[in-house]
Amino acid sequence: MKILSMFPLRIHCWGGLGSQFFALSTFLLLSKKFPNRKLVLVLHSGGVTERTSEIDGFLPIGNIKKVSDFNAKKSRTIESLESSQNLSIKGLLKLLAYRSGFVSDLSGSIKELKPWILSVRGHYTNLKIPHDCINELVCISGVENFHGNGEPNSINSLSIHYRIGDLLNVKPESLVSKETLVDLVNALKKVNSIDKIHLYSDSLVLASQYLEICGLTIECHDEDTLSAVKALSHASTFIGTNSKVSLWIVIFRIFFNIRMKSYIPAAMLPQLVAVTDLSEAQLIESFVKLY
Hints:
With 291 residues, this protein is of the alpha/beta class. It has 10 helices and 11 strands. The protein folds into 2 domains: 4-127, no CATH class; 151-290, Rossmann fold (3-Layer(aba) Sandwich). 35% of the residues lie in helices and 15% in strands. The chain is elongated, with a radius of gyration of 21 Å.
């Protein structure tokens, strides 16, 4: 077992900043459970869309490895067709790796991980993220040090993170419809003196077109995702949509004790309950409003 513990524990991550925050939190949690193991965060570029690291400098160079595996061509040659006959063997080996504790998808508790664990999938988990871990994430990411122009903090504005991107074609059922978002903005207009929208999106032009019917001034923020997270984590009133980035913004807003000023789709509530120390009732009573 001592020999196995000499091997690095790799935390694999696919996806953008939201996924990378989950992988970072996994890294921090596992570093406490296995203080004598070397941990390596493996950032994959592969997936539906090509991804790059958005957390450069967050960890020492020796603890991050980048893998360029986007658009890897799987040739359909005779050799590849013949190798497909061995898929059942590969599946069996994979099952053995999971059953023996060498590999984990972190679907259970960290306490269940074996000392000889070699690889985990960390880009999305339901592991509870304790307050001290979120504090570390806030510090290393710079989320605590937002020094913007102050406008997103105005009580007369709404700050919206509207995830569209590849959801239009890949997972349209997860996309918050423009009608739903417009209805929410109009409802908030009726009870608050709202005159401006601060819009952050991976599809700014389309998102602004969707929201212009609200009749408010729209300021489009064409910034990198981390800058958006920093600003929105401190905004006066925040509207999130179905995405890991919006989820992390709400997690940070809870950490900063910003109460009852975060609006999220009802479908996101179970995810928020899973990773925080708060119950559904506590979240609704003190921190979030559902739409």
